[in-house]
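Incident review: delayed structure delivery

Summary: a single-chain prediction request sat in the queue longer than the usual turnaround. Root cause was a stuck worker, restarted by the on-call engineer. No data loss occurred. The affected request and its eventual output are reproduced below so the record is complete for anyone auditing the incident later.

Affected input:
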Amino acid sequence: MPRSSSTAGAESDLIIKDEVVRTLGSELTKVRAAQGQLQTENERLRHQLEETSLALRTLEEKEKERAKAAEDVVSSEVHEQARRELETVIRERKKERADHQSALEEITTRHTKLQEKYNKKKDSAQEAQAELERLQELTASAVAQLSSGAGESVLKKRKSRADDDSAEVVSTSSATGAEDRRHEQPHRHEQPQQQGQPQRHEQPQRYEQPQRYEHPPRHEQPQHTLPRRPVPLALPRNLGRHPIRKPSPTGLSGEALDVRAFLSIGAGGHPGDPRLERYDKARGNGCWMDIHSKLLQAKLERKMKYCPDESLIWSTCSPVQCIFMHPVHSYVSESQSYKPYDYNDHMRPRATRDFCVSKEGNPVTIYYCGAFRCVGTLEVTTGELIELGLPPQGAWLDVLVNNIFVSGTFSPNGGLTMRQFLRQACHEGKILVRCHKLQYIARNEAISRIFAECASGASARPLNQSGEQASDDANSREWKKPRQV
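Output delivered after worker restart:
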């Protein structure tokens, strides 16, 4: 099942739950307010009845005194009229109390029904969550079996390809020419359009490098029978899905050379300056909360992607091209191995996101770079990225280490901490990194206005005594926290 539809389904369930809880909360508030009003009215009526009874008793005492003083002068009509008035007041108070009691019972009945409805929906949501967790476990086990089988098949193919290459070396020159022509032929999905077939309109690419496809078309991908789940686990893109590229004379793989070509890095060259100052920005340790709340109110949060500026490597020639890097592997402490993990920050080809970049400082600065489309993905090892010389090396390497998911309890290995151990693994080239090739599309004016409003009202805060940022900046720098379960 596609990840986008699964994520939409999960978010729709959360929206329904939030809506039910919000409706029940509002109804309960109304019931409590009405109940409070009834209690206040009852108290007022009780006090009024007590005052009337006290006045009546006072009147009766006065009448008794008058009767004792002058029994002949006491008027029976005045006594009867007072008695009739008292009976009238008592009847009115009893009627009002009965009306209030009936209204209170009706409100209580409605509250009970709403509570039962909420409990039923809560139980159904818990059952759905339990079913979802069960399907996730089944899918994880199936994907693990599939990945192990696919890895063995890839090793066999590589061995057979190496044997074929050694046989080709001793073949005749004509066979070598034929082999070269075979390598120069495009892939199946890059063959020219035949006549009579409907043409497929693609978005024009703005960079000068030839467009490359890292994965076969969807109708040519292998079909696997797996249990369905809303969020499928991701396998490495280069695991049995496209032909293995031979290493170049420089020692870099084809994917690494493609990264260098996309960034327009020449021999011995380096990527360009991010040039973030030309984008919309908001500065201040407290501005992030304002920006985030306004994006939620405008319903723009789902299209945003947040990352530190070290995660983006910009092209040397084009200011509208960059690469977003994120690890593919996770570290499993129990088996002390690296396995693919389904990160939420991974983007699919042709996916569009609005990028919000944070740059460290005192105070922190947040930039809105605009909307970017993922025109392709490449998976390169950290060792090859280090050989490319992407600056600043220590900064983006620290970001990759912070984003690696660690499963289980990490046990110190050779006296190294978890960060030191993962950083050493990156230097050894054990971590696979997914490089998303991004192309600038446009700018969302609504987001730009939000940044302008927050920038005008943002206040800069200095560092605290421990040398760290203020507490309200923690959400904007959540990538600095190592993730471990």
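Verification: Strands lie at 280-283, 304-308, 312-314, 321-327, 329-332, 337-340, 352-359, 365-381, 406-407, 432-442.
Action items: add queue-age alerting; document worker restart procedure.
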